[in-house]
Amino acid sequence: MIRRVTESELPLCLRVIHEAFGTVAEEFGLTPDNCPTNGAFMPLTRLLEDYRKGDAMFVCREGGAIAGFMQLSRRGQAVYELEKLAVLPEYRHRGYGKALLGFAKQEAAANGAARIHIGIIEENERLKRWYLANGFVHMGTRVFSHLPFTVGFLETACGG
Predict the structure, then answer these.
(1) Residue-wise pLDDT tens digits, 110-124
(2) Cβ atoms within 10 A of the Cβ of 158, count?
(3) Which in 12, 79, 83, 150 has the greatest CB count within 10 A?
């Protein structure tokens, strides 16, 4: 079951983001010092700010527990940015990420978007393959001097 997040649930959502992004941070050697903007280290104030500015946030539940989270941010008339797609390690490989992704495409399309963009750690080949297998197209890369990895940019059409 996927549904919109309420403000009171943001601390629970942050725990999901921290745990899910934490496995990737560990794998790629990310720390609060070398990558403070990574979801593994995000403060509640940032998530609350995004919520209050109107970003759409959703959770995927199994029973009473939150298994996954995602955030959609409008970036233009026809474009949304998919952010913080996160599935707790114990719920991975059960289709929750794919369900959240499909829901994101439908939600963005219902709000007039034609495309969804995402930025990932380019060196995370497993994640990149997953997005490509789920309809995304690799659009290029960029090196940012403040990040210890290359950012890969992907995009997909909404609604499908």
Answers:
(1) 999 999 999 999 999
(2) 20
(3) 83
